[in-house]
């Protein structure tokens, strides 16, 4: 078990280092291509209630997507103790509605309305990497691992294509994602 955890930890470190090496202009181009793919995806087009994330550590930047579709109901999470709490964020007032929160991640203000989690159409999930079986390598905090088993909506991993791997180590509690979307 220790070797397995060490392998995940080493893999996470290696992949995060590779992601940090992506030049800013290339990162922006890949992010825009990923947003274009999402906006053309029928499931996204039909979705009204979407849970998403703000880019952290050079994750794909989905902000162009929110700006093109401000009338969808966008939910962003806050880390509270060991849980994710989802708030609805008005994109038109995004900068005033978000704050730097736990781990330096941009999070919604605590006084914003909560999302109705029984009514979610689509969940856009950040990851360090995903594999072809739908497993996700996260940052190791377990926030999504604890939250995803009871979630509704299409569980969609959002990564750059170079982090879409054949196989990843996984644990019994890992939830497979329904779809993986990359810029390709």
From TrEMBL:
One Pfam match: 5-FTHF_cyc-lig
Keyword Transmembrane attached: no
Cofactor(s) the protein requires to work: Mg(2+)
InterPro entries: FTHF_cligase, FTHF_cligase-like_sf, NagB/RpiA_transferase-like
Keywords: ATP-binding, Ligase, Magnesium, Metal-binding, Nucleotide-binding
Catalytic reactions of this protein: (6S)-5-formyl-5,6,7,8-tetrahydrofolate + ATP = (6R)-5,10-methenyltetrahydrofolate + ADP + phosphate
EC number(s) on file: 6.3.3.2
Example GO molecular function: 5-formyltetrahydrofolate cyclo-ligase activity
PANTHER family xref list: 5-FORMYLTETRAHYDROFOLATE CYCLO-LIGASE (PTHR23407:SF1), ATPASE INHIBITOR/5-FORMYLTETRAHYDROFOLATE CYCLO-LIGASE (PTHR23407)
NCBIfam families, per database record: MTHFS_bact (TIGR02727)
Family: Belongs to the 5-formyltetrahydrofolate cyclo-ligase family.
Name the UniProt record assigns to this protein: 5-formyltetrahydrofolate cyclo-ligase
UniProt source species: Phormidium tenue FACHB-1050
UniProt lineage: Bacteria, Bacillati, Cyanobacteriota, Cyanophyceae, Oscillatoriophycideae
């Amino acid at each position: 078990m220790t070797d397995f955890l060490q392998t995940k930890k080493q893999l996470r470190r290696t992949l995060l280092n590779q992601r940090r090496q992506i030049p800013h202009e290339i990162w922006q181009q890949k992010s825009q291509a990923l947003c274009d793919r999402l906006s053309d995806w029928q499931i996204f087009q039909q979705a009204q209630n979407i849970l998403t994330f703000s880019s952290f550590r050079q994750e794909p930047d989905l902000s162009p997507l929110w700006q093109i579709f401000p009338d969808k109901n966008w939910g962003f999470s806050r880390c509270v103790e060991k849980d994710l709490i989802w708030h609805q964020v008005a994109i038109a007032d995004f900068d005033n509605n978000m704050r730097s929160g736990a781990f330096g991640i941009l999070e919604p203000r605590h006084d914003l309305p909560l999302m109705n989690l029984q009514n979610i159409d689509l969940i856009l999930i950040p990851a360090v990497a995903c594999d072809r079986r739908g497993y996700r390598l996260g940052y190791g905090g377990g926030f999504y691992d604890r939250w995803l088993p009871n979630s509704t909506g299409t569980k969609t991993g959002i990564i750059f294509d170079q982090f879409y791997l054949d196989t990843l180590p996984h644990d019994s509690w890992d939830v497979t994602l329904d779809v993986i979307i990359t810029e390709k």
